[in-house]
Amino acid sequence: METHSAVLQKLRNTFRSGVTVPEKFRRSQLTQLLTLIQENEEKILGALHKDLSKPKFEAILSELEIVLNELHFALSNLRNWMQDEHVSKILATKVDECFVRREPLGVVLIIGPWNYPMHLLLLPLVGAIAAGNCVVIKPSEVTSAMEAVIAELIPKYLSPDCFTVVCGGAEETKALLKNKFDHIFYTGSQSVARSILQAAAPLLTPVTLELGGKCPCFIHERVDIIAAAHRLAWTKYFNLGQSCVAPDYVLCTKETRDLLVPALKQVLLEFYGEKPQECPDLARIVSPKHWTRIMGLLGKSKGKVVLGGESDEDSKYIAPTVLVDVPEDDSLMQEEIFGPLLPLLTVSSVDEAIDFMNNREKPLALYVFSDDSSVVNTVLKKTSSGGFCSNDGIIHMALPGLPFGGVGASGFGNYHGRWGFETFSHKRAVLLRGWALERLNGLRYPPYTDNKLSW
Ligand code: NAD
């Protein structure tokens, strides 16, 4: 078995050979990734079902289609992205060629989480390949079926000289991080992100951190409450709440809350029927450890469960749950819930909701539901978050034209579409000068006489 440093040396040698740089090579690998997904759909869906009981519809939408769209977008735009970008000149550079050249960074590391174990590993990979890098791919060990599929398929479809998969958990990742990379792209929790930064610091390795946090959703009184309940419930209970951009908690007035609870009750019945535990359209919590953590938060909560609340440890099931009368210092408000528990907190006004959100860490996404565009614009103007979406959730991340990433504690750096290509490219400042106009150049050479400044 090759050691990490031997594998990395092989990738570094490949990178230095320049093989990954031509557009033709990048295009061929992106096309191979496309083929990998198309030829192995059943295998991928099977693994996602084994790991998370992902409903087929959700898996196709959020793991397959999103990566396929990203690949098509990259293939359509690659030539354009790779062009040198000419910049405006100053008098002293009038006859020079001045441009920005996007160059690959080298050998990069992509570390993925378990909640969308294919999407969150392969979407950054699209950007890294498009930008011409060699890549070490580290899937999450928590979703072991998907980890095995990635380890099996990547070497079959992508060039093994340029792309390699390293499996394992925290210890293997720590060992991997002792090596020098040209960039680390990490998606996962804030606590592990600190270890990643510490490991990167001695080697001054640049890092992108795609983290989580508590994404708020403010629901204004001027709203179609049934439509709002549909959109809120779908975005919250998709993947059983294990989405980094899921609404973590709702802020609304007491009056809106009293309309929202029955609306959510109706919608949950429509979505998942009388016996949600038997409904195939609900995923499961990824592991007993995560199930225990979420149930611990619920057990300690001072909030009142008004919908759901049932659970089953053996099948890692937790019902879509709604809580009211949740105090600000509640267990559910201390950390990202990352599960199907939805606390509804009451505020008296838009301004109070804005203050509430601004008194906390900047979230990865922030949602506002209102018929009144001035309310939407006020919240947009007065808050900060990685992404923003009005009258829906999650959906903004499906657009390759929008950058996806956090701000503050929800992470730094971004990707998707051109933004991913940029993240994995060095923007090299180039000035090509010839030998003309040497007399003009002479104006800057010593001796620095006064008349040279007055020129
Ligand atoms: P995690 O941080 O536990 O694990 C992510 C990766 O880090 C895995 O590959 C794991 O093997 C590795 N890892 C774990 N411990 C490590 C250590 N001590 N040192 C080095 N590597 C280590 O995260 P997770 O539980 O898989 O994911 C959940 C979190 O990720 C949530 O907070 C969620 O909000 C966040 N998330 C963010 C995004 C985003 O795009 N911003 C997307 C999905 C999930």
Descriptive account of the structure:
The chain is of the alpha/beta class. The protein folds into two domains: 4-212 and 414-426, Aldehyde Dehydrogenase, Chain A, domain 1 (3-Layer(aba) Sandwich), CATH 3.40.605.10; 216-404, Aldehyde Dehydrogenase, Chain A, domain 2 (3-Layer(aba) Sandwich), CATH 3.40.309. Helices cover 42% and strands 18% of the residues. The protein is built from 16 helices and 18 strands. The strands form four sheets. It has a seven-stranded mixed sheet, with helices on both faces. A six-stranded mixed sheet has the order 5-4-3-6-7-17, with helices on both faces. It has a three-stranded antiparallel sheet with strand order 1-2-18. The longest helix has 27 residues, at 56-82. The chain is globular, with a radius of gyration of 25 Å. The mean pLDDT is 97. The structure holds nicotinamide-adenine-dinucleotide. Nicotinamide-adenine-dinucleotide (NAD) binds next to helix 7 and helix 8. InterPro entries: Ald_DH/histidinol_DH, Ald_DH_C, Ald_DH_N, Aldehyde_DH_dom, Aldehyde_DH_NAD(P). The active site is at 210, 244. Keywords: NAD, Oxidoreductase. One of its GO terms (molecular function) is 3-chloroallyl aldehyde dehydrogenase activity.
